[in-house]
Amino acid sequence: MSIDDDERALFRSVVGTVRRIETGRHHRRPQPPAPKPRQLEADEAAVMDELAHGPIDFEAIETGEEISWLRPGLQRRVLIRLRRGHWRVQDEIDLHQMNVEAAANSVRAFILAAWRDGLSCVKIIHGKGLRSGPDGPRLKRLTARLLTRIDRVCAFASAPRHDGGTGAVYVLLRSR
Fold first, then answer.
1. Cα 169 to Cα 127: distance, rounded to the nearest angstrom
2. Alpha-carbon distance 47 to 40, whole Å?
3. Which of 81, 161, 171 is nearest to 121 (CA)?
4. 91 occurs within a structural domain
5. Domain with 117 in it: what CATH number?
6. 105 within domain boundaries
7. In the chain, how long is the greatest CA-to-CA distance?
8. pLDDT tens digits for 4-19?
């Protein structure tokens, strides 16, 4: 949009003379300070304080590693469903207080009996190995090694936390 000379003259006659005001002020504003995430800092400080001084829930602490195995040829979905508890646990055995030899014999007999009875999912409680010393969880390793060698076992996976966590394993058996 352009202003012609007549309009400009009209504006000057109405406004009158104009003079610039001289000041010592700078015409540019200083940069505002960077925002400070005060609430985030307060939240993080509260979490650190609770971690340092809060009560310890030993039930929530898992030790050891999860174990799982799937027989070659089966879909990975089977293992995922087993971990999530898709199959109802129909029987269980507890290996606590057993030595390695007794536990091995018990696991073999238990799996064979469960398969003969037509069970599809069982649980073996092997413990987390907290008192196994420097050798680590011997019964856990024994259980994993044995289950991979028994042809009636399709898959196994560490149980969910509410059902033993890394101290127990769900075992899926093939059908008869």
1. 10
2. 11
3. 171
4. yes
5. 3.30.1370.110
6. yes
7. 112
8. 999 988 988 898 888 8
Residue 31: strand, helix, or coil: coil
Residue 20 lies in a domain: no
Bridge partner residues of 157 (DSSP): 68, 170
Q: How far is CA 102 from CA 95, 113, 142, in A?
A: 9, 16, 11
Q: CA-to-CA distance for 73 and 15, rounded, in angstroms?
A: 92
Domain enclosing residue 159, as ranges: 71-173
Instruction: State the angle between helix axes of 138-149 and 100-116 in degrees (0 to 180), rounded to the nearest 10.
Output: 40
Q: Residue 110: what residue type? A: F
pLDDT tens track for 123-172: 999 988 777 666 678 899 899 999 999 999 999 999 998 888 889 999 99
What is the number of other CB atoms lying within 10 angstroms of the CB of residue 111?
Answer: 21
